[in-house]
Amino acid sequence: MKVTTLRLPSGATAAARQDGDAFVEVTGYADLGALLAAPGWKDIAAAADGARHPVQGADLAAVVPAPSKVVCVGLNYASHIKEMGRGLPAHPTLFAKFAETLTGPYDDIELPAADPAIDWEAELVVVIGKRARRVPEAEAAGYIAGYTAANDISMRTYQFRTKEWLQGKMWEASTPVGPVMVTPEELGADAAITTEVDGARMQTGSIGDLVFTPEYLVSYISEMITLNPGDLILTGTTGGVGRARTPEVYLTDGQTVTVAIEGIGQLRNVARAQAAGPAVPGVLPAGVDLAAASSGNA
Taking 80 as the threshold, does the pLDDT of residue 95 lie above it? Predict the structure, then answer.
């Protein structure tokens, strides 16, 4: 099953199930988070027979627009850990986002004038399906409603001002999430995860490269704090981020960044500059061949 949150012409939102080339509204549920909080949500979604909207051209919000928590994992793909020159961790590296950071899968991404080093991070996202507190790893799969995709857009200048990463990760409307949540049986164990910038492949990986699995993360995080239906866990990014390249490569005004996870779909977002500014070392100048700049670094 594939479910999401639609933005309606009225300005309201609605939970919806994908049925072929249409999204079917789940009447009475304003978004996917509200649907997941309902007992028997799968049966409710499967039986939904509300208004239909074409998938093509649909205006989608973040899959869960207002989760109570967004927990993120850093350095969780072996390929990315290697490119950043680190050893495999014994424990997950965690940080948090807030609901205000989330945005729709096709919304523009603002490039803030305050930071010229804006990077991409394709991520598999765990969506919690029921209240989880101190869940054993062996039982954690039963608490996962499904999976979606995110692009953890990172403001690298701010991120590396200190040893703590939060200030580079918590910018408003900086994290596209979607386009749909798929239930676990629809996601392959080695599904491909990729990022392209203006059609040039920048990240290529497999979710099978995760160091800490979704089940482990649900168990680990729920030992610390209760996870609620609709909460999101961003599981980390694979190799190929702009900061790890030589020279470093970052997003510039007008570029389209596409994150895809096999079985889930694509995020397609256009980078829009907040304001014009002077050229900054490490930012890919206009006219440079992005494909050539990326060769040999993924």
Answer: yes
pLDDT in tens, 166-225: 999 999 999 999 999 999 999 999 999 999 999 999 999 999 999 999 999 999 999 999
Alpha-carbon distance of 276 to 250, in angstroms, equals 15
Per-residue exposure over 229-264, b if at least 16 CB sit within 10 Å of its own CB, e if not:
bbbbbbbbbbbbbbbbbeebbbbbeebebbbbbebb
- Integer CA distances (angstroms), 195 to 11, 49, 172, in order: 31, 35, 21
Rounded Cα distance, 73 and 104, in Å: 21
Q: Is the Cα torsion angle 66, 12, 265, 140 positive or negative in sign? A: positive
Q: What is the largest CA-CA distance in the chain?
A: 55
Q: Which two tokens stand for residue 37?
A: 């909080």
- Whether residue 227 contacts residue 221, with contact meaning beta carbons closer than 8 Å, is answered with yes
Cα 298 to Cα 92, 95, 228, 234: the distances in Å are 23, 25, 36, 21
pTM of structure:
0.90
Per the structure block, which two tokens stand in for 201?
């492949």
Burial class (CB in 10 A: 0-12, 13-18, 19+), 149: buried
